Amino acid sequence: MKVLFVASECAPFVKTGGLADVIGAVPKALAALGVDIRVILPVYPALARVAKTGKIVTKFDELFGGEARLIAAKSEGLNLLLLDAPHLYDRPGNIYLDDSGQDWPDNHLRFGALCFVAAKVATEGIKRWKPAVVHAHDWQAGLTPLLIRQAGAKTCPRSVITIHNIAFQGLFHWTVKDTFSIPDELFTHEGAEFWGHLGFLKAGLSFSDKITTVSPTYARELLTAEFGMGLEGVLQARRGDFSGIVNGIDLRAWNPSTDQALAKNYTSRSLGNKEQNRVALRTRFGLGSDASGPVFCVVSRLTEQKGLDLLLEALPVLVGRGAHLALLGSGEKHLEQGFLDAAQQYPGQVGVIIGYDEELSHLMQGGSDAILVPSRFEPCGLTQLYGLRYGTLPVVARTGGLADTVTDADDAAIKSKRATGILFTPVTSAALRDAIHRTCDLFDQPKVWRSLMRNAMRYPVGWDQSAPAYLELYETIATK
Ligand code: ADP
Ligand code: GLC
After folding, report:
1. Which residues contact 313 (CB under 8 A, 6 or more apart)?
2. Does residue 362 belong to any structural domain of this protein?
3. Is 383 in the pocket of ligand 2 (CB under 6 A)?
4. What residues does ligand 1 touch, defined as CB less than 6 Å away?
């Protein structure tokens, strides 16, 4: 089975969030199942070095305003197809945003070009390689299924689109349809049109053969007006082709027994070693050594989605229980400022680093007792999965993938050794405060806490279940 992944980010090369982790990890898991898989990505500055090691497979004299080349390269165990179009991608900083934090004004061209080239590879093949299935991820890849459909039914490969986050839909002025020669019959309410705009994600949802999202609970939530962000009707109409497949993590990149970013490696049999990581974490975040409660951490984008304003409101309870907080994140200015102010207000108890630091995020998983994820919605969430693997108990809102991957430490689950964390609902600061109290109560019972840590570390967070689920899905459409 030949499969082409289309995505805008991929770890370890270029990452703004969990999408990159998933795109960096699933192809390897699928390759281990015998899938011949390639990933097409834009050549941002972060990929320039890898692109230099590859071979040019196609040249474009003119691709939406400039010359471009498609380069085949191998790196980090991935077979990459790199779209080198300097006029679109050779820009410093965030891959989606300009210096002022606004979307690049030509994002429709930048990601439309990616879809255009992906569809070309899909329908024409390159160097005798032609995929049976094209798997598009999020809005940036959303035009691909439409462009494949447009190319004609017979020779078309099948397509799947995965929704990693429906909050980002890629909506553009309707005239953009002409840039991509989208005919009027595809630009309809049942097609790519969304309230007068061209919707890249909507196009993907309308024209792909299958739709997935990254957890079963989020799949159910997306069918409702509360979570569907206007696309619930489209998903309801395609209910029979829509399912949730939970994310896994890269077990090699995230392994407490080998992780180079830790001060001391450990396993579930040497949990005492976590202490040295805690000491290193305290030093990095200026926390005192006097915590009588757990050390909580947060590693997150600071946005409305992540519910961290609720944590700001609940902080007096956290520090009141003798717990500490280490937060690493960046995003909305008012949240950044809120946490910086909290660090001033509770010196030695609340430590805050504003920024993005991959290595530090590993140390935080290694050195904390619990990780807080109070999201208002969470398609899957990966930091709670890292937490499980590192014996850092997730304290999470009961929504989306958080609900699917964490088992609440109620009495029955503790007894049957299934409990791995704390879940709370509704997503309010009052419920979060209760969850913090419950976490501290459990932490005060060292034997129970240790057994929760062991349960968490035993919980399967790799791709063992989900990679075969994707393959099965590909097989149902490819053989039709
Ligand atoms: P989302 O994709 O919605 O941001 P996920 O939980 O799926 O949420 O993935 C977030 C990923 O980004 C995780 O790998 C997390 O460790 C990482 N991350 C988020 N913020 C930071 C940060 N400030 N520094 C380092 N890593 C971060
Ligand atoms: C999105 C979601 C997150 C998910 C990630 C990878 O960014 O917000 O919940 O884990 O994609 O699928």
Report:
1. 429, 432
2. yes
3. no
4. 17-19, 21, 299-301, 328-330, 356-358, 361, 380-383
What is the span of the domain harbouring residue 139?
Answer: 2-248+464-478
106: in domain: yes
Summarize pLDDT for 205-216 with one digit per residue, the tens. 999 999 999 999
CA Rg value for the chain: 23
The CB of 378 under 6 Å from ligand 2? The reply is: yes
Residue 155 has pLDDT above 80, yes or no: no
Spell 371-388 as b/e; 16+ CB within 10 A means b. bbbbbbbbbbbbbbbbbb
* Pair 311, 333 in one domain: yes
- Side by side, the strands of the sheet bearing 210-213 are 55-60, 68-75, 78-84, 36-42, 2-6, 133-137, 158-163, 210-213, 242-244
247 lines ligand 2 (CB under 6 A): yes
Same domain, 454 and 472: no
**Does 371 share its domain with 471?**
no
**Domain containing residue 303: CATH number:** 3.40.50.2000
pTM above 0.90, yes or no: yes
Whether the per-residue pLDDT at 153 is higher than 90: the answer is no
Count of CA atoms in the C-beta half-sphere (13 A) of 461 = 30
Q: Are residues 441 and 471 in the same domain?
A: no
Q: Are residues 222 and 328 in the same domain?
A: no
pLDDT, tens only, 363-372: 999 999 999 9
* 17 C-beta closer than 6 A to ligand 2: yes
234 and 279 inside one domain: no
> How many angstroms does the Cα of residue 15 sit away from the middle of ligand 1?
9
Residue 261 lies in a domain: no
Question: Do 453 and 469 fall into the same domain?
Answer: no
pLDDT reading at 391 higher than 80: yes
In ligand 1, which atom is closest to the CA atom of 305?
3
Query: Does any domain span residue 259?
Result: no
What digits encode the pLDDT tens for the residues 18-63?
999 999 999 999 999 999 999 999 999 999 999 999 999 999 999 9
